[in-house]
């Protein structure tokens, strides 16, 4: 028998294909919907819930027990919870963690997140892997299954959906460091640990909102340009993303992209992006580095990918592939100084096998900026 939370209201999960499962409400009471996806991480649920790349998605955790170590404010990757809803098999109201701030239930209520527990997540994962990604609705206030199925069918599809502007910051912000290098970072939903990864390497960051005009970004005279992760269809973000990528390419400075940023850099070279049948989401995805032959265990979160059937090898070199399905996971660009990966080298949560990618980018920045002793410090130039 699937374990349930007996002190919580009944809830329903309805998929757009007519599949309906019942369980118990967790978090806030209400109705929510989005693209149903699953994450295979065993831990790190708070970092997952606050990852802006998950905006607009219902998150199903494949690990059966969720909530048993509580929550800690320091683990947030953004200023608020970003997922649209949560689906788990067994939910723990109690927690055992001496440094936790509180329970996951309190955290979900505080962030007004709606969820459901006590459902057969293994069955649902198999269903999605067979049928493909689809929309769904969670409700703890509507009991009419047909109405919920209708809502799921009417929910906006992720393909063609522009979401980065919903999670980006409203104003540019400088994040100082003691180092000499200046990185202009485009915020399409940037994670906090990406910012930390640059600051820890001596970079002062100027983080720009997603729709910032390229002229404004170029005014800051960065030593390198970073294009962040983010939610939604990259094709729908290209009208504001590509002009900045093109301006950065013309600057002659190195470029680095992660996730959505990787896809925008590929689009700038005319390489199409496709919607995946089932995305990659978890902290245990095997990636092969084609340059070294080594395998990295990576953190991933993407439902779109570079179209491997339409790759143009005169413009890019494929550097990394996913060993589960051969999806392209990394590129080096031949017409400008640029590198990008589909996955998350900053982890959070997950392994740090791929953190060297930040170091590789910094080597490119250092070569372009010249000797460190001749560079002006980021704090002096940050205004």
Percentage of residues in helical conformation? 10-25%
- Derived structural class: alpha/beta
Order of helices and strands: EEEHEEEEHEHEHHEEHEHEHEHEEEEEHH
Q: CATH topology of the largest domain, what is it called? A: Rossmann fold
Characteristics:
383 residues, alpha/beta, Glucose Oxidase, domain 1, Rossmann fold, 2 domains, 11 helices, 19 strands, disordered C terminus
Detailed description of the structure:
A ten-stranded mixed sheet has the order 10-12-11-13-14-19-18-17-15-16, with helices on both faces. It folds into two domains: 145 residues, 3-Layer(bba) Sandwich (Glucose Oxidase, domain 1), CATH 3.50.30; 218 residues, Class I glutamine amidotransferase (GATase) domain (Rossmann fold). The chain is globular, with a radius of gyration of 21 Å. The chain has 383 residues and is of the alpha/beta class. The chain is built from eleven helices and 19 strands.
Task: Please describe the topology of this protein.
Elements: E1 10-15, E2 20-27, E3 31-39, H1 45-49, E4 57-61, E5 65-66, E6 85-87, E7 90-91, H2 104-110, E8 114-117, H3 121-131, E9 134-139, H4 145-154, H5 164-167, E10 173-175, E11 181-187, H6 192-199, E12 203-209, H7 214-218, E13 224-227, H8 238-251, E14 255-258, H9 260-268, E15 273-289, E16 295-306, E17 316-322, E18 328-333, E19 338-341, H10 356-369, H11 378-381
Parallel strand pairs: 3-4, 4-6, 5-7, 6-8, 11-12, 11-13, 13-14, 14-19
Antiparallel strand pairs: 1-2, 1-9, 2-8, 3-9, 10-12, 15-16, 15-17, 17-18, 18-19
Helix pairs in contact: 8-9
